[in-house]
Design brief:
Elements (H helix, E strand, L loop, with lengths): L1 E6 L5 E7 L1 H4 L5 H15 L58 H17 L3 E4 L9 H10 L5 E5 L4 H6 L6 E5 L5 H6 L2 E5 H11 L1
Parallel strand pairs: 1-3, 3-6, 4-5, 4-6
Antiparallel strand pairs: 1-2
Subunit structure: Part of the 50S ribosomal subunit.
GO molecular function, one term: structural constituent of ribosome
Protein name: Large ribosomal subunit protein uL4
Length: 206
C-alpha cells in the first residue's frame, strides 16, 4: 500500500495514512485516461452551430434564365451554393458530440488518474478542513501552508463553509468525493483531499 503523510491545515505533518492500492496504486492506463478526458470535453460541447442548406434559405424559387441560348452557364436557382446568398454545402447542424464509455472503463480511468497523482507526489491528505465561518483569506492561508497554488480540493458534505471559502480563489476548484472526474484531477497541479474524502473514495471505487 502507498503510504502518504497527513497534514493539518497549518501545513504540519500529523501522521500517515495507507492508501488502498485498488484505487491509488493501479497501473496507469493512459489510453483510458485519454478517452475519459475526451469523453468529458465532448459531452460539454453545446453542438448548437447551424447554417442553412440550399433547401432552407429563402428565395430561389424560379429558374434565373432559360436553360439554353443565353450564353450563361445553366442555373436552376439563385440560392444554389455558388450564388451570393445561397445555401451552404454540407452545412453544420445541431448535434450531440458525446459518446459512450463503459462504467468499468470510467472507473479504471479515474483510478489511473488518482494513482498517477500519488505516484507523482501530487496527492496531499489533510486531516480535516472544518471552517467555523466562510473565510476566503483563511482558505488561501491553508494553501500557502501546504505550498500549493493550483489545486483540486476534495471535500465531504460537512465541509460547506470550506467549499464556499474556496469559490473565489483563482486556480482552485472544490469537489465532493462522488463528483471527482479524470479531467479535473489532471487539470490541477495538486489534489488535496481530507481523510474523510479519501475513505469515501476508497469505499466507492475499491
Amino acid at each position: 500500500m502507498a503510504n502518504v503523510s497527513v497534514y493539518n491545515i497549518e501545513g504540519k505533518e500529523v501522521g500517515t495514512i495507507d492508501l488502498n492500492d485498488a484505487v491509488f496504486g493501479v497501473e496507469v492506463n493512459e489510453h483510458l485516461v485519454h478517452m475519459a478526458v475526451i469523453n468529458q470535453l465532448a459531452s460539454n460541447r453545446q453542438g448548437t452551430q447551424k447554417a442553412k442548406t440550399r433547401a432552407e434559405v429563402s428565395g430561389g424559387g424560379r429558374k434565373p434564365w432559360r436553360q439554353k441560348g443565353t450564353g450563361h452557364a445553366r442555373q436552376g436557382s439563385t440560392r444554389a451554393p455558388q450564388w451570393t446568398g445561397g445555401g451552404v454545402v454540407f452545412a453544420p447542424v445541431p448535434r450531440d458530440y458525446s459518446f459512450k464509455m463503459n462504467r468499468k472503463e470510467k472507473r479504471a480511468a479515474l483510478k489511473s488518474a488518482l494513482s498517477s497523482r500519488v505516484e507523482d507526489k501530487k496527492f496531499i491528505v489533510v486531516d480535516e478542513m472544518n471552517f467555523d465561518e466562510i473565510k476566503t483569506k483563511r482558505f488561501q492561508e491553508i494553501l500557502s501552508n501546504l505550498n500549493v497554488d493550483k489545486a483540486l480540493v476534495v471535500l465531504e458534505d460537512g465541509d460547506k463553509n470550506a467549499e464556499i471559502s474556496a469559490r473565489n480563489i483563482s486556480g482552485v476548484k472544490t469537489a465532493k468525493s462522488n463528483t471527482i472526474n479524470v479531467y479535473d484531477i489532471l487539470k490541477y497541479n495538486t489534489v488535496i483531499a481530507t481523510k474523510a474524502a479519501v475513505a469515501s473514495i476508497e469505499e466507492v471505487y475499491a
